[in-house]
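Students often ask why we bother encoding 3D structure as a string. The short answer is that it lets us treat folding as translation between two languages. Here is a chain of 264 residues written in the first language.
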Amino acid sequence: MPDPTQVCEDALRADKAYNVENAILPSENKIIDRLLARRVELVSAYAEIYEKLHDREHGIATILGIVTNVAAFWNPQKVADARDARVRLQKVNHEIAELAMDLAGLLEERSEIGNSSGFASDTHYHIAEVIDAASSDNGFYRFHLRDELKPLKSQYDLKYWPSLAEVVRVIGQDAGDADTKATDTLTRAATTGSRGSRADFFKAFFQLIRENGDANPGHLPRNFRLSDETLASLANCALHLGPDDLVDGAYVKRLRQRARERRR
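And here it is in the second language, the structure alphabet:
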């Protein structure tokens, strides 16, 4: 029987070699190096992985790729950054909404002054002019859309077009009404809950396992499951947790129980 540790480490080295050859994913290579350096802690985990996936093409490489991917991109710091980005996006939309309302008011005031005072500033007043100026460096616009837009401006007078103030006001209303959502399943899985923790890593891990199951389809069996102890060992090594920060099988078991309760 082949040595499970050797088989798994060969898969990791092959993955790293591919990344190096193609100059991609250095962050995943860092995780691979961690796993190789802490091989003694992973002997039992590799044995379980081999037992469950050795007869499935690409199965071992897939599960180890999930470990390196989640540890590289959904580790506690990355998830904290994602949570911060969500908060910042909400604030940015709020600021856009407020500023847009102010700007729309100023644009309307400028138009009123220009129409009633005998004074005018040489500024854009037509949305088509704004589009043309904003797209001056866009070759696709210049060669494909400009000649289509120009006749429309001449053919239809201002009453057919939105004013600059109306355009800005709609932008503000859109930002003010925006509902901030995760754009992918991993982000959604990892950032559920009110505050971040190492549990976020496992949420992303479980989600990526589901996405690689036969039902999708993928290279893992449907409802594929690793033991709590194996998941804990993989997380400890991939996240480079020290002796005082290690998670154990009981911790993973509690996470799974809470996840099942939420799905009920």
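Translate back mentally: The two ends are 42 Å apart (CA to CA). Keep this in mind for the problem set.
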